[in-house]
Design brief:
With 399 residues, the chain is mainly alpha-helical. It folds into 2 domains: 2-35 and 169-395, no CATH class; 55-148, D-Maltodextrin-Binding Protein, domain 2. Helix content is 67%, strand content 5%. The protein contains 14 helices and 4 strands. The chain has helices at residues 2-20, 24-30, 33-54, 64-80, 98-106, 134-148, 167-205, 208-213, 218-251, 266-294, 298-320, 329-336, 341-351, 356-384, and strands at 57-61, 88-92, 113-118, 125-128. A 4-stranded mixed beta sheet has the order 2-1-3-4, with helices on both faces. A hairpin with a 6-residue loop joins strand 3 and strand 4 (125-128). Helix 4 crosses helix 6 (134-148). It is elongated and about 95 Å long. Mean pLDDT is 75; it is low at 387-391.
Length: 399
């Protein structure tokens, strides 16, 4: 046992030093910037398209007085709703041929008119493509009713006392924290687990792995490589979290203190995030390392790892459905299932303050990590150097 531990430590120290102390590790730390930049670019494009889609334009063919009353009712409604939730009104003067004017407005591209309101406030009539957007017609009914009211004026004064947090807003903020935590855990695990594959393929192609296998047990090589990449990933995560907190401190007014606090507190949430990342990485990294042992080229690795990646996406969806109801039957099932347990329990840390479920979950996940590492190391030994008799893949455990 001591020889196994020493051998694993030697392999882990070798791979960790070769990864962290290399110049390429700097580019590895800069790697997340590119997805963030792409996300910002495509997010801006999507927001612009969504803004154009969300703002339905209604052409109002009426007198100046009726349009002014409608505009006043529209402004009052827009002050109470989020930006983009209220229709945009554009005024047009009535023409002698009203039908031709309607057809011309509905065919207009600047602005793109969703519907045309005619008849003024006395006999309003809405014409347009509103079957798939019933909210437009409902808003116009409300606007017309408010504009018709003779007492329509400014809203009455309302005394507002603002408090720092309420149960409803706190629950919503914590659900958002749980979702973002799960997404980061998922993407970081998928992104960082690929390092194990690339390094293994390089050593297999250069025959280095055969030299290492002559000095240390294959099982120790498997465990050492996995924990070395885990340690390098944790170093990267600490750097990214520190850089993100520093950016938020300078950019956001009030700094990180204004962020919604998770149920277990920020320090507890960050500590659990690292622990659950380690568990999730070991579970998924063992699978990827086993796959890499059976492949000899990068193309084979991509082909064989694709089903594992798709399965991880389904597991992420299974864990994400537990957000908002951490004590439901589905949430408990996701917490018990070992592959979804880290993401599920990280979301629970953002929503529930109890610590004892996390202690049980960590022990449960550690048990499955040991089981998967044991099975993965056996298959790793059978496939890396083709040692031992060839057996079917479903019988390698018995062999």
């Amino acid at each position: 046992m001591m020889r196994f531990i020493r051998s694993s430590y030697v392999i882990a120290r070798r791979d960790f030093g070769a990864t962290v102390l290399s110049k390429a590790f700097i580019f590895f730390l800069l790697g997340p910037l590119f997805p963030l930049l792409l996300g910002g670019v495509f997010g801006g494009i999507g927001a612009r398209v969504a803004t154009q889609t969300v703002h339905p334009v209604v052409a109002v063919v009426s007198s100046d007085g009726d349009f002014a009353r409608l505009t006043k009712a529209r402004d009052d409604l827009a002050a109470a709703l989020p930006d983009g939730a209220v229709v945009t009104l554009v005024h047009y003067s009535p023409e002698p041929d009203l039908a031709a004017e309607q057809r011309q407005l509905l065919a207009s591209r600047d602005p793109p008119v969703r519907a045309v309101l005619t008849g003024g406030l006395d006999k309003p009539r809405l014409t347009g493509a509103v079957d798939e957007d019933p909210g437009t017609a409902a808003q116009l009914r409300l606007l017309i009713a408010n504009a018709r009211s003779p007492q329509h004026a400014a809203p009455p004064p309302l005394e507002v006392t603002n408090v720092r947090a309420a149960s409803g807003s706190l629950a919503k903020d914590r659900q958002a924290t749980a979702l973002y935590g799960q997404m980061l855990l998922f993407f970081l695990t998928i992104l960082l687990s690929g390092m194990v594959l690339s390094q293994l393929i390089e050593e297999k192609s250069n025959k280095i792995i055969e030299v290492i296998a002559a000095a240390v047990p294959i099982d120790a090589m498997f465990v050492g490589k996995l924990f070395a990449m885990l340690a390098a990933s944790v170093v990267g995560i600490i750097v990214w979290i520190s850089a993100g907190a520093l950016i938020i401190q300078f950019v956001k007014h009030g700094g990180v203190q204004t962020l919604p606090t998770p149920a277990v507190g920020w320090w507890g949430f960050l500590a659990l995030s690292i622990v659950y990342f380690a568990m999730n990485y070991l579970l998924l990294g063992a699978a990827f390392l086993t796959i890499g042992a059976q492949a000899s080229t990068a193309r084979e690795v991509q082909t064989m790892s694709m089903p594992v990646t798709f399965a991880q996406v389904l597991i992420f969806g299974f864990a994400a459905n537990t957000i908002g109801d951490p004590n439901s039957t589905g949430a408990i099932a996701a917490a018990v299932f070992p592959l979804s347990s880290p993401m599920t329990m990280l979301a629970r840390a953002a929503e529930e303050p109890e610590w004892w479920p996390h202690l049980l979950a960590i022990c449960w996940q550690a048990l499955w990590v040991a089981v998967i590492l044991r099975l993965g190391s056996q298959l790793f030994r059978k496939t890396v150097l083709k040692s031992g008799p060839r057996v079917k893949w479903w019988r390698f455990g018995r062999a």
